[in-house]
Structure to design on (328 residues):
């Protein structure tokens, strides 16, 4: 699993970067990130880059709300003593945000599935753990509220999120389908789909051509990007649905299924837990995908805050500290 140190450090807002800047396994980045110009109390991060293009209209509205001085940090309003207008307009009518609802409620509602380690897990006693569970708790602490984890499923994630949650966390992949309905935070992990199988079969299932053959049983959890991948890419192999993602790897161990194609991070975690299972080329997966937090559509204020928090936590050691016990 690779970690995104910064999604895009150059280019104007809305401009697609040449590619994510990656660091190896949880490596710490240096302090050498370029400083972003602060504008009207908001860091207009160039690293927000192309993903923010989706919210450019909302950003434009925010810019208008906070004043034209935002456009030029050397322009009128940049210096509070210059008598410019930016400061005045920033005290104008406040833009209502999920941030305000969270503060009033005293609670951050976090949708999570609890079935995808190392990111989210709910044990038999109902206790939650995982990298993204701890990260969500850290976000709640930063907001000065309690975190309430709201159990959801991959099939009902989008609907549950829209109705019941402020954020969804737990290995959520960025997809364009979801991006039509919600915002995403910046990505914090780059991953992709790769096979996991019993080790004696690892050489047999390296390519999709090898896997997609009659007689091969690929077990699949419903509702997420795994199922989408399997249904789009496997036509001759048998797709074996298994509804419980916490017991799905037992299907492979027992021999009832031959393999599963899932995210590299999960194959590594499960292979460490079950030595008879092998992650097949988890660092050269079949696909490119990113993990991010799902956020309310249109709420640029909350999105900006979450991105600032995430950026700092990726660089102050918090993310590494939380992730290390899960990834070794
Ligand atoms: O849908 C997504 O966002 C996911 O990445 C979740 C998903 C999936 O693709 O089904 C990924 C791996 C886990 O095995 C469970 C769920």
């Amino acid at each position: 699993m690779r970690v995104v140190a910064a999604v895009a450090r150059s280019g104007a807002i809305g401009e697609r970067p040449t590619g994510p800047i990656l660091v190896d396994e949880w490596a710490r980045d240096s302090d050498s990130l370029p400083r972003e110009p602060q504008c009207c109390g908001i860091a207009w991060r160039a690293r927000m880059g192309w993903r923010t293009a989706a919210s450019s209209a909302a950003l434009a509205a925010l810019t208008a709300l906070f004043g034209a001085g935002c456009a030029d940090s050397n322009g009128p309003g940049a210096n509070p003593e210059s008598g410019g207008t930016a400061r005045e307009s920033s005290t104008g009518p406040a833009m209502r945000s999920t941030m305000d609802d969270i503060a009033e409620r005293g609670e951050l509602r976090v949708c999570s599935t609890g079935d995808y380690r190392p990111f989210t897990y709910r044990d038999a006693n109902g206790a939650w753990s995982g990298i993204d569970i701890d990260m969500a708790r850290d976000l709640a602490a930063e907001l000065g509220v309690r975190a309430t984890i709201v159990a959801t499923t991959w099939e009902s994630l989008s609907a549950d999120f829209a109705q019941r949650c402020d954020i969804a966390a737990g290995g959520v992949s960025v997809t364009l389908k979801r991006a039509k309905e919600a915002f995403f935070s910046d990505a914090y992990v780059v991953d992709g789909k790769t096979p996991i199988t019993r080790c004696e079969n690892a050489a047999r299932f390296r390519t999709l051509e090898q896997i997609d053959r009659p007689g091969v049983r690929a077990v699949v959890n419903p509702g997420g990007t795994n199922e989408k991948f399997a249904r789009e890419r496997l036509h001759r192999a048998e797709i074996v649905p298994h509804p419980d993602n916490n017991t799905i790897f037992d299907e492979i161990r027992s021999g009832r299924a031959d393999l599963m194609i899932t995210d590299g991070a999960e194959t590594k975690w499960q292979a460490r837990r079950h030595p008879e299972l092998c992650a097949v080329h988890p660092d050269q997966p079949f696909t490119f995908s990113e993990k991010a937090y799902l956020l309310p559509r249109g709420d640029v204020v909350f999105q900006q805050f979450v991105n600032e928090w995430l950026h700092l936590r990726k660089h102050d050691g918090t993310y590494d500290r939380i992730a290390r016990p899960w990834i070794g």
In short: The CA atoms of residues 219 and 240 lie 4 Å apart. The longest strand covers residues 107-112. The two ends are 12 Å apart (CA to CA).
